[in-house]
Specification:
Strand content: 15-25%
Largest sheet: 7 strands, mixed
Helix content: 25-40%
Order of helices and strands: HEHHEEEHEHEEHEE
Distance between the termini: 29 Å
Oligomer: single chain
Number of domains: 1
Number of strands: 9
Structural class: alpha/beta
Length: 218
């Protein structure tokens, strides 16, 4: 994320999702990595505000010595083994990008889950100039190559999505059930989707039914 956007409406949306999941005891030993692209500009009060907006305690916010341009050092500092929220400026990279600091790569997510097999990883995904479900499908296709990932759940809104990823299928199903129970009939129509990654297919820009990603709605 970027400090100039701290406090916008999307921070409240993210916080409401995490508040719901924490109240339902879905999240375990939860921590937040802001993935700040402007890390030197952040002050203690900024991290404190972020914690309030995301409905977590200040000690749940991970702070870094190295910036996102030093990828191996940055992710090497992530010693936290519990559930994790990654908040990149833009989301998950599906190919080459101009500014990698605004993204998290599929392999980086896969490595985080491989190091702590029971964890749930949430990732913010921004969407521009296309339908949210189309972008989420492309992201899922890119993630499908990661052997440590078995299941996913997405909460999709008008211009953004939150993806929940895990090796343990029960972890993502708990997310799906919590949001489906909260939203009732409003969870249908693609608002809440979930599924499993299948690696016996050629993943590409294909419809979900043919992409090797098993999906369900609501």
């Amino acid at each position: 994320m970027n400090r100039k956007y701290l406090g916008d409406a999307l921070d409240h949306w993210k916080g409401s999702l995490f508040e719901c999941l924490q109240a339902s005891s879905v999240l375990r030993d939860f921590a937040v990595d802001p993935m700040a692209t402007d890390l030197p500009d952040w002050q203690p009060q900024d991290f404190s505000l972020l914690a309030k907006l995301l409905r977590v305690n200040p000690n749940q916010i991970i702070q870094h010595e190295h910036g996102l341009r030093e990828r191996s050092k940055y992710f090497g500092e992530l010693s936290h083994a519990g559930d994790l929220f990654l908040d990149p400026d833009t989301g998950i990279a599906t190919g080459s990008v101009t500014n990698l600091a605004q993204y998290v790569r599929p392999k980086e997510i896969g490595d985080l889950i491989a190091k702590s097999a029971g964890r749930l990883v949430a990732v913010y995904q921004h969407v521009r100039a296309q339908r949210v479900n189309v972008r989420v499908n492309a992201v899922l296709a890119a993630l499908s190559a990661q052997a440590s990932l078995s299941g996913w759940c997405s909460y999709e809104s008008g211009t953004v999505a939150m993806l929940f990823l895990a090796r343990d299928l029960q972890r993502v199903d708990a997310v799906r059930r919590t949001f489906s129970e909260l939203l009732g009939s409003h969870a249908k129509g693609g608002r809440i989707r979930s599924g499993e990654f299948s690696r016996g297919f050629n993943i590409g820009l294909q419809p979900m039914a043919a992409s090797g990603i098993i999906t369900r709605r609501g």
